[in-house]
Amino acid sequence: SDWSSDVCSSDLFGGISQGTLAALIGTTRSRVNLFMTKFRTLGFIKYRGRIDANRGILIDTSLLAKALRK
Predict the structure, then answer these.
(1) How far is CA 37 from the centre of its chain?
(2) 14, 39, 40, 46 - which has most CB atoms within 10 Å?
(3) What is the pTM of this model?
């Protein structure tokens, strides 16, 4: 997928650890990691290394929308 056309600046998500995200959604950090890896493999998200305020997650909203419509 061409990220430049599918991702806009409002789709940048950062500044949260997997542990914090797990606590917010009521699961374990290992489950968050499992699904983030799966979403990354499927092309729904893109990130490098540690997720923080400087290196957030890019979300391919058009690909995600297509998957959710199925």
Answers:
(1) 9
(2) 39
(3) 0.64
SS3 of residue 59 by DSSP: strand
Contact between 57 and 3 under an 8 Å Cβ cutoff? The reply is: no
Amino acid at 36: M
Length of the chain: 70
Q: How far apart are CA 69 and CA 22, in angstroms?
A: 26
At a CB cut-off of 8 Å and minimum separation 6, what does 11 contact?
58, 59, 60, 61
Distance of alpha carbon 4 from alpha carbon 37, whole angstroms: 21
Tokens matching residue 66: 């297509």
